[in-house]
Design brief:
This protein is of the alpha/beta class. It has nine helices and 15 strands. It has a nine-stranded mixed sheet with strand order 14-13-12-11-7-10-9-8-15. The two termini are 33 Å apart. The structure holds nicotinamide-adenine-dinucleotide (NAD). The site of nicotinamide-adenine-dinucleotide has 26 residues, from helix 1.
Length: 339
């Protein structure tokens, strides 16, 4: 393990692709070999031993690559992932795994058939505040969960994506699947797979966009826990993923943009029961990509399972698809986890 080096290629070097490159550069087991982006003007940013390609297939053909990192628009995740897996390359694919569950199935199938690892970058599981919240829940600190809620509130008005992929009127990128997936995945990670959802949506902020900009979904989690996910991409506020976890003995209020999480807990003392509030300090690291690169390296070098595999990514997409379907149909939808 000590001296093993994995050759990485990054496809799509926009905002998040650059974060992955930084994560690769920080990791002693990772070497950036090649990058690919359809924007040829980006070539002059890559010098020395890193080769730049505008053609993804050419890159896979020419270069010896161990891990491909897929950071292109959501609409192309499936194509690029399956191509790499079938070429014998492990894949770390950005969230959302894909925009349809059928695409997720194809990606899982390619990973199964080739034996190559497929990890989905559900990065909220690496945010220190959320990691601490989950540890506290798992340790029984707030007792039995009964209600969990999370919101993905992010003003996209000025970030349609390079080339406008977030506002593509043909290959729709629904914000619940593309962005709300963070909140869905977080609640799934903490409370398990919801079985059914009911949602309402509107488009009062980004009226020229081809998708609804605000959706609220309620859902049934295992063991009778109920939950709510709100997705807004037109809200007038700073980015937040405020999350509240209610248990029989206490409540956790957390975010990926706050330097502390709040734990309120009931204690018994001589005067009876009282609620004690503690502020627990955490780092703000809402895009802890370096940690994902580390997990990918560990899994490939140690030949172990990746932590957020295709089934995990697909399950989050499945909940998102059920929410979109419910909002359109005006009725509850059962989530299909058959992958
Ligand atoms: N984990 C997170 O929190 C997080 C945050 C932002 C974005 N994302 C995801 O990462 C992906 C990229 O998002 P972004 O914000 O970096 O977008 P972006 O628009 O900033 O960058 C995308 C890049 O891909 C390039 N590209 C487009 N089509 C391509 C193709 N066919 N082949 C090669 N390159 C191509 C574009 O030129 C651009 O440079 C999306 O899937 C998005 O949902 C994840």
């Amino acid at each position: 393990m000590e001296d093993k080096i994995l050759r990485f290629a990054v496809a799509g070097v926009g905002g998040i692709g650059r974060s992955h490159i930084s994560g690769i550069e920080q990791n002693k087991h990772a070497l950036l070999t090649a990058v690919c982006d359809i924007d040829a003007e980006l070539e002059n940013e890559y010098t020395g031993s890193v080769k730049f390609y505008t053609d993804y297939n050419q890159m896979l053909k020419d270069e010896e690559i161990d891990v491909a990192v897929i950071c292109v628009p959501d609409q192309i995740h499936k194509e690029y992932t399956v191509t790499a897996l079938r070429a014998g390359i492990h894949v770390l694919c950005e969230k959302p795994m894909a925009l349809q569950t059928d695409d997720c199935r194809e990606m899982i199938q390619a990973s199964r058939e080739t034996g190559k690892k497929l990890m989905i970058g559900q990065v909220c599981r690496k945010a220190p505040g959320f990691m601490l919240a989950k540890q506290l829940v798992d340790a029984g600190e707030i007792g039995e969960l009964f209600f969990v809620e999370s919101e993905y509130a992010h003003d996209y008005a000025k970030i349609p994506g390079r080339g406008g992929w977030r506002i593509d009127p043909v290959n729709l990128r629904h914000p619940v699947i593309g962005g709300g997936c963070h909140a869905i995945d977080l609640l799934r990670w903490i409370a398990g797979n919801p079985s059914e959802v009911f949602a309402y949506a509107n488009r009062k902020m980004l009226k020229s966009w081809p998708v609804d900009d605000c959706t609220v979904a309620i859902m049934k989690f295992p063991d009778g826990v109920i939950g709510k996910v709100m997705t807004s991409i037109g809200c007038k506020r700073t980015y937040t993923m405020r999350t509240v976890l209610y248990g029989s003995r206490g409540t956790i209020i957390c975010d990926n943009t706050s330097p502390e999480i709040t734990l309120q807990r009931e204690y018994n003392n001589k005067d009876g029961q009282r609620i004690v509030t503690k502020q627990l300090p955490v780092d703000i690291n809402n895009h802890n990509i370096a940690s994902e690169i580390e997990e990918m390296c560990d899994a490939v070098i140690g030949n172990t399972d990746v932590p957020t595999d295709g089934i995990e990514g697909a399950s989050t997409v499945a909940v998102g698809c059920a929410i979109v379907e419910s909002a359109a149909a005006g009725e509850k939808v059962l989530v299909d986890y058959n992958f």
